[in-house]
Amino acid sequence: MKGRRRKNWIHPKVLYIGLSCVCVLLVVLSFRFSDQFASAKAVVGDLVAPMQKGINAIGKSISDQFELFDSKENLMDENQKLKEQVNTLSYNNKILANENKELESYRELLDLNKKYPDYPKVAATIISRDGNNWFNIFYIDKGKKDGVDVDMNVISGNGLVGIVSEAGDHYAKVRAIIDDKSNVSAMFEKSGETCIVKGNLTSIYNGYIDVEMISNTAKVKEGDEIVTSHVSDKFLQGLSVGYVRDIKEDDSSLTKTAHLTPSVNFDQLEYVMVITQLKNASEIGEISNDD
Q1: CA-to-CA distance for 271 and 109, rounded, in angstroms?
Q2: Is the dihedral of CA 268, 273, 275, 276 positive or negative?
Q3: 47, 52, 53, 54 alpha-carbon torsion, rounded to 10°
Q4: In a 3-state reduction of DSSP, which class is residue 173?
Q5: I need a labelling partner for 14 at 20 to 30 A (CA). Which of 40, 153, 166, 199 fits?
Q6: Does residue 144 sit in helix, strand or coil?
Q7: Contacts of 270 (CB under 8 A, 6+ apart)
Q8: pLDDT of residue 260
Q9: What is the pLDDT of residue 155?
Q10: SS3 for 54?
Q11: How does strand 153-156 pair with strand 137-140?
Q12: Phi and psi torsions of 132, nearest 5°
């Protein structure tokens, strides 16, 4: 069996020491014989300079890429934080808007309470309505246990909303003056001339309520306020119904007709007040049932 060929092998430590000595020797010689090595330095410099320039360019490019990557990461983090802040602010703004709307509604009820100080009232929240865009028939969260009963007047905004048509222990049903079945005995606040405010859902879609049975001799004009009449058997006297417009004479009769801009916005109701006092029919004597 042939013996293995012996390899020439230099120990790394010896190689390291040898190279170190060579480097030290070169450094010493470069300082000791700087003039003699000047040309050699120049040649080496000419060779190394372009390489060094390229290496520096590559290094700078790599450094820029890392900085760009870090910048993108930072921007993405900041963008995410800003999105979270925007979402939080948006949510808080919605809450504030709802609170402001609710506060405004309470202010309106307070002003309405001051407008009719002689009547006892209870505030209520609308909990449901019949299936259309208008609050012609709706339900509130107050009932007999809260002093609410049938035929009590309901107000909101700047005036009359309607009348309680049904009452349970903890709820009540309200028929608004815009409903097709509603007829309100009313009068012009300044002149005292009487009229009938007749509910009509078709009319309220056009922004008004119909007014009928105005005397041809009545001295009324555009913008006059109409309020509930003293001859109404269910509605308390003096509640604002709205403001008259489009007055027309009927050639075939002795009356005029008109339109009424209601005192209440009937497509945005949320809170109402129920006047917990019934109209005393004995005060008006024998009248026709117009309500």
Answers
A1: 8
A2: positive
A3: 100
A4: strand
A5: 40
A6: helix
A7: 105, 125, 126
A8: 93
A9: 94
A10: helix
A11: unpaired
A12: -155, -175
Closest Cα to residue 139, out of 113, 104, 165? 165
Q: What was the pLDDT predicted at 106?
A: 60
Q: For residues 134 and 51, give the distance between their C-alpha atoms in angstroms, rounded to a whole number.
A: 84
- Its pTM stands at 0.62
- Rounded to the nearest 5 degrees, what angle is found at the Cα of 197, between the Cα atoms of 196 and 201? 140
Q: What is the 3-state secondary structure (H, E, C) of 186-250?
A: EEECCCCCEEEEECCHHHHCCCCEEEEEEECCCCCCCCCEEEECCCCCCCCCCCEEEEEEEEEEC
- What distance separates the 2 farthest-apart alpha carbons in the chain? 145
Closest CA to 237 of 275, 198, 268, 286: 275
Measured CA distances, 37 to 29, 40, 90, 283 (Å): 8, 5, 75, 130
Nearest alpha carbon to residue 155 among 143, 147, 163: 163
Q: Are the beta carbons of 249 and 118 closer than 8 angstroms?
A: no
Tell me the C-alpha distance between 180 and 5, whole Å.
Answer: 119
> Side chain identity at 224, as an amino acid letter?
D
Are 221 and 213 in contact by the 8 Å Cβ rule? The answer is no
Q: Which residues of the chain have pLDDT under 70?
A: 1-10, 16, 24, 26-27, 29-56, 59-60, 63-64, 66, 70, 91-106, 108-109, 131, 281-291
Beta-carbon contacts of residue 228 (< 8 Å; ≥ 6 apart)? 160, 184, 185, 186, 187, 235, 236, 237, 238, 239, 241
Amino acid sitting at position 222 = E
Neighbours of 191 (CB within 10 A): 13
